[in-house]
Structure formats: C-alpha cells, structure tokens
Specification:
Blueprint: H1 23-26, H2 32-41, H3 47-54, H4 57-70, E1 72-77, E2 82-87, H5 92-99, E3 110-116, E4 121-127, E5 135-136
Parallel strand pairs: 1-5, 2-3
Antiparallel strand pairs: 1-2, 3-4
C-alpha cells in the first residue's frame, strides 16, 4: 500500500494554541470537528461511516484498511498539527471525551490525541512527527454539500 508523505506545516500554519484551551474550540474549522461531533451525537454509527463522509475515495479506502488490519486509524490535521489515533470501536462517549480534552502545551510540537489504555483515559501528548502511515485529512477533503448527519 502506497503512503503519501504528510505535509509539514508552515511556520504560520494553524490557529494559536494556548494551554488549557478545550480541543473542541481549537478544532473550529477543522475537518475533524464534524467527525468528532458527529460521532458524539450519533450513538450506534461506526467510525468508518463517518470517515467515508469526510475523506475522498482513496483516503477512505486506506482508512478502512487501517481499521480492519490495525484496529485503529491515525489521522492528521497539518494546519493545527494534531494527530488523532482513533480505535475502530470509537464510541459516542469517547468522542465527547476527546472534544473536552484541554491542550497541554503552547508550542509548535505535533499533538497526538490517543487513548491511554493503562490509565483508561484520553490524553494529548507532544510528539516530533506523525507516525508513518498516517492519513492526512483537510477541509479540502470535505464534500461541497457538507457531510450530512
């Protein structure tokens, strides 16, 4: 499977990050906000159903393969420098928990949002770069007619 390199953000990319900002606010205008809000509000809909709505064909297929093979998908927002490691069985309650996380730092590191299974909690951690095989998603990927709910 071909992996396209993740676009590195420019020095002026993305909104300003501040310690304690709720992730929900930080994601305004991001392709991930409708995904997470949709998952939080639609109990019983699976992650792949939402990914098909926000990703074009090839990226959606890659996401499906990752969910089936790895049990998770890693999505990247290069504008905000945020990486989401989402399990195939993401629930509405987990999506809500993610949106209510607070940003831990105010610097230019990538932020990885992932489930810490040992602690049983969602965390945001600074990392140097997105993992290999991550899928970049942008607002350009959204369909013009919106994603529907």
């Amino acid at each position: 499977m071909k992996h396209e390199p993740i676009t590195q953000p420019s020095e002026t990319a993305g909104p300003t990050r501040s310690i304690g900002t709720v992730l929900l606010s930080f994601l305004a205008g991001s392709v991930f906000l409708p995904l997470l809000e949709g998952m939080a509000g639609k109990v019983g809909e699976d992650l792949y159903a939402w990914l098909r709505r926000i990703l074009p064909g090839g990226k959606a297929k890659t996401a499906e393969e990752k969910l089936l093979d790895d049990g998770q998908v890693v999505l990247v927002d290069t504008v905000r420098r945020v990486i989401f490691q989402l399990p195939a069985d993401l629930t509405a309650a987990q999506a809500t928990a993610i949106l209510n996380l607070r940003l831990p730092i105010d610097d230019d590191a990538w932020l990885l949002v992932r489930k810490d299974y040992a602690r049983g909690a969602w965390v945001i951690e600074p990392v140097a770069d997105p993992p290999t095989g991550s899928i970049e998603a942008t607002t350009d990927d959204l369909p013009e007619e919106g994603i529907g709910r």
